[in-house]
Specification:
With 240 residues, the protein is of the alpha/beta class. It contains seven helices and seven strands. It has a single domain, classed as Rossmann fold, CATH 3.40.50. GO terms for molecular function: oxidoreductase activity, acting on the CH-OH group of donors, NAD or NADP as acceptor.
Length: 240
Amino acid sequence: MNPTGATYAGKLALITGSRRGVGRLVAEHILRNGGRVAGFARGESTIDHPGYHHFQVDIGDPASVQQGFAALKKVSDAVHIVINNAAVLTSQYAMIMPPAQAQAMINTNLMGAFMVSREASKLMRKGKWGRIINIGSMAVSLEPIGDSVYAACKAGLTTLANVMAKELAPLNITCNTLSITAIKTDMLAQLPGDKIDAVIAGLPIPRYAEPDDIFNIIDFLASERSAYITAQTIYMGGVN
């Protein structure tokens, strides 16, 4: 049992989209609890901590992901935990959705997670241990108007985790998805507040997510306690 504040001692977590929002919150949580974090993001670092290593990577570009891993290997020869968090969102009716925006969501939200999981699993294989956690969305279940491509990408993320779970299980690597509800971030601020409030009001637990709601589940999925759990999706707030 690790002492308080050392939950992630000896572990390196790779978090995509670590500059802001959920990615930054989770990165800071892991750092507070004894882990090291490698952050992949398009922009410059917003975290100042001796255990944090930042890499400017566009996960929507496979070449950029491979370059990021080449740089990461100079810092660490092991990745223990991956949190596929980075995402872009354009909420728009399908008939007027700009194709470029739709493609950007596919590249980042789905293909980016695939590329990061693919490369990270090669490093996890050496240590015969790993945890891949995809950050999904309530949009998969609620299917809100305007989110056709975003929801489809997040649904694909769940299937990606489930199939990779079968492939990676012999290597003691688990793959699961945490589908979060609305939490107050820059991404959420892009959407009409009254519409989000209406969605939240319809949930069995009708409130916005708090950081600890997310941390509790990630702590479990990233730990030894979840060793027999893979190819699972956890929906927050009673969404199903």
